[in-house]
Amino acid sequence: MGCRGALGCCLLAALSCCLPPGCRGNITVAVMLPDNHLKYPWALPRVFPAILMAHEDLHSKHKLLLGRSINILNYSTEDPAAGSCAESRAQVVAVDAKLYIRPDAFFGPGCVYPLASVGRFASHWKLPLITAGGPAYGFDKRDEYRTIVRSGPSTTKLGDFANVLHAHFNWTSRAVVIFHDLRQDDRPHYFLSEGIFLNLKEENITVEAQPYEDDYKYHKDLINFMKERGRSKSVDLK
């Protein structure tokens, strides 16, 4: 079994063991992920087979279910027309799941905006939500996202690295973060830069953000921007 299956096995075992010892009922898990495996590493075609393999491995080899059974249901959080994650669809799926199947845990969503909404619901319902996505800085707010468990990377850690880099080279005055932002779908470069931007601000470094788009005129403005500020600031280009 590969690393994905091993991770899924550990997560399912943890779900089983955290229930009261006298419980012998089903554990229901709602898997909420997008379908587009070419765009998202946490898409259903990639992740769901690993979860099923982990379930089979738990049941047949490790005997960790303690007499319980796990019922795994999968739901798409993708807008079929746009081919991308949809926050509104994720909200509806989560509420319907809570009303009609009463899950014991959520796996996903992975995209930032759907995860933010469903994560707040899960915290209110006191249900664990496990995701390989959600790298954004905002998910570090444990008072708001109390039940989210992230197994993937975090932009907060990237921001910590930027702080160490500035300390190593004694860059103590100013920095500029330049990033590509199309303001659609999951905005990965925006959230990647956010972790760096906010971590540097906490170190009392003056930070300026400069987003850019694909239009040619923005590229010219970007080059001029870097020429004007490049000698006085550290530049981080995304």
TrEMBL record:
GO molecular function: natriuretic peptide receptor activity; peptide hormone binding
Gene Ontology biological process terms in this record: signal transduction
UniProt-annotated location(s): Membrane
Keyword check for Transmembrane helix: yes
Keyword entries, A-Z: Membrane, Signal, Transmembrane, Transmembrane helix
GO cellular component, one term: membrane
SUPFAM superfamilies referenced in this protein's UniProt entry, alphabetically: Periplasmic binding protein-like I
Chain ranges passing through the membrane: none
Listed InterPro entries: ANF_lig-bd_rcpt, ANP_Clearance_Receptor, Peripla_BP_I
Start and end residues of each Receptor ligand binding region domain: 47-214
Residues in the signal sequence: 1-25
Protein name: Receptor ligand binding region domain-containing protein
Species of the source: Acanthochromis polyacanthus (spiny chromis)
